[in-house]
């Protein structure tokens, strides 16, 4: 009986060793958390990332080594990362409690010499009792920077289009001033006046915070920049942006810029 138990233990140890080696070869930062949120194991990329991002005193970040409570570190976060850390804590806790099947979040993790973005994914480990989860951080900086470059190009084109439309509006206005007086109506024709009134009516439906986000989007600021300046999460900015699009009845940033131009807001903030 003891021999069988010994053989089983050796076999299990070999399985665990192979699993650890496999984790080390995955190109993502991985940690396993127990039911309380304590780190029970990490892979090599996780440890290498921690070693490459030491604190000013040369020590490793407090939430990276085995035995650290990852959830407690999230709750202790302060400053501009507080809201993001709270979202991570709540997401992990929900997966550990079985209230969610998984959780994911994109977040900035900038270093002094470069900007970086990561995708966090949390999944439960099947048949683990008590429940454990695997936390995976994947570097998505290349994709994020490509999206930013594409968005910047789109916004540059949108501003150029808005300028052209502004010039066209001035030409139409000048032509309207030179048009003959309408005796039937007793007024000059102002074909754009009704449209501008409608635009201003839509803008008045925005809250103060929505107006702040609207003007930031028109200026070409990225979601991450707006979130950092207003000290809210990227997800909150996305929610504000969706509300603004809905209230103003537009579908993209280019239309936001055109609407701002129609309201006379460009250059007059």
Describe the structure.
Helix content is 55%, strand content 11%. A hairpin with an 8-residue loop joins strand 4 (117-124) and strand 5. It has a five-stranded antiparallel β-sheet, sandwiched between helices. The protein folds into two domains: 2-139, Beta-Lactamase (2-Layer Sandwich), CATH 3.30.450.20; 144-262, Winged helix-like DNA-binding domain superfamily/Winged helix DNA-binding domain (Arc Repressor Mutant, subunit A, Orthogonal Bundle), CATH 1.10.10.10. With 269 residues, the chain is α+β, with helices and mostly antiparallel strands. It has helices at residues 2-24, 44-52, 70-76, 82-96, 141-178, 193-203, 208-218, 223-230, 234-248, 253-262; strands at 29-33, 39-42, 103-108, 117-124, 133-139.
Secondary structure: elements and pairs:
Layout: H1 2-24, E1 29-33, E2 39-42, H2 44-52, H3 70-76, H4 82-96, E3 103-108, E4 117-124, E5 133-139, H5 141-178, H6 193-203, H7 208-218, H8 223-230, H9 234-248, H10 253-262
Antiparallel strand pairs: 1-2, 1-5, 3-4, 4-5
């Amino acid at each position: 009986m003891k021999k069988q138990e010994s053989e089983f233990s050796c076999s299990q140890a070999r399985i665990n060793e192979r699993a650890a080696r496999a984790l080390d070869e995955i190109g993502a930062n991985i940690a396993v958390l127990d039911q309380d949120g304590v780190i029970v194991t990490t892979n090599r990329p996780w440890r290498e990332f921690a070693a490459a991002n030491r604190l000013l005193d040369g020590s490793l970040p407090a939430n990276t080594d085995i035995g650290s409570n990852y959830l407690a570190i999230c709750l202790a976060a302060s400053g501009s990362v507080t809201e993001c850390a709270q979202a991570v804590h709540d997401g992990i806790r929900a997966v550990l409690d079985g209230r969610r099947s998984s959780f994911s979040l994109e977040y900035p993790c900038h270093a002094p010499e470069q900007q970086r973005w990561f995708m966090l994914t949390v999944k439960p480990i099947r048949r683990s009792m008590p429940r454990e989860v695997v936390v995976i951080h994947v570097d998505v900086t290349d994709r994020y920077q490509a999206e930013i470059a594409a968005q910047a190009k789109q916004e540059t084109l949108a501003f150029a289009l808005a300028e052209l439309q502004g010039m066209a509006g001035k030409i139409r206005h000048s032509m309207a001033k030179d048009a003959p007086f309408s005796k039937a109506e007793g007024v000059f024709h102002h074909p754009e006046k009704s449209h501008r009134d409608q635009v201003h009516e839509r803008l008045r439906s925005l809250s103060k915070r929505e107006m702040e986000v609207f003007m930031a989007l028109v200026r070409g600021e990225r979601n991450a920049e707006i979130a950092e300046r207003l000290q809210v999460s990227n997800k909150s900015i996305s929610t504000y942006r969706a509300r603004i699009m809905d209230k103003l009845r537009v579908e993209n940033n280019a239309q936001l810029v055109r609407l701002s131009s129609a309201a006379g807001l460009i250059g007059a903030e």
